[in-house]
Specification:
single chain
Length: about 200
């Protein structure tokens, strides 16, 4: 019974940590409601585009840590339930994308999923990050890089690393598909040639 209570508390805590809308809070601190400008998304990309580069990078870091730190914590302090770290990571991502603090509307989960995966499978996520960089560098579309990396993860996790347990493979594949679904409006704009590009080295606020 105590084991079940521990699991429930970890999952609730992970959801609440993931739900903290850092992008929105950073935007408000700069006098910008990111829900009303740009893509109207509270994620780091919209903060980067509408508030400024350094604030977008700060939002990305905060969202990344929301996925990384809870998974690291559960691996250190929790019971020996082998699927709990990936479940905690999943709840962090769900919290970010469906935050209770923003009427269950949130970001697209890329940075938070990235942090979760760094804690779980650093080698695999390193390759996925390279996929992101290649597609983003060639196109200047963050959404294209994000969807490409998510698709890579959703497929590759079934084959590598060999140490991954079945529940990890399922959850990571689901997260990859979920990230792509959250980008459906971006995909439509990409197909229409209407998606906004991001230039990392172009002058910004």
């Amino acid at each position: 019974m105590n084991n079940y209570i521990e699991i429930i508390l970890w999952l609730i805590g992970a959801y609440l940590v993931g739900s903290v809308p850092f992008g929105f809070l950073i935007g408000k601190s700069r006098g910008v409601d990111v829900r009303t400008v740009g893509s109207k998304n509270i994620g780091a990309t919209n903060v980067f585009r509408t508030v400024g580069k350094k604030w977008g990078l700060l939002a990305f870091l905060c969202d990344f840590l929301k996925g990384l730190l809870p998974v690291v914590a559960v691996k250190i302090f929790a019971s020996s339930v082998n699927w709990l770290p990936v479940a905690v990571g999943l709840f962090c991502v769900v919290g970010h994308t469906l935050t209770v603090f923003m009427k269950f509307k949130g970001g697209k989960g890329v940075a938070t999923a990235f942090g979760m995966l760094v804690a779980l499978m650093p080698a695999l996520v390193g390759i996925a990050f390279l996929v992101f960089v290649i597609f983003f560098a060639c196109s200047n579309y963050i959404s294209l890089g994000s969807c490409s990396a998510a698709a890579f993860l959703a497929v590759t996790v079934w084959f590598w690393p060999p140490s991954a347990i079945l529940v990890e493979k399922i959850i990571i594949a689901v997260i990859g598909v979920f990230v792509i679904i959250k980008h459906r409006s971006n995909i439509v704009r990409l197909l229409k040639g209407e998606e906004n590009k991001i230039y990392i080295f172009k002058s910004s606020k």
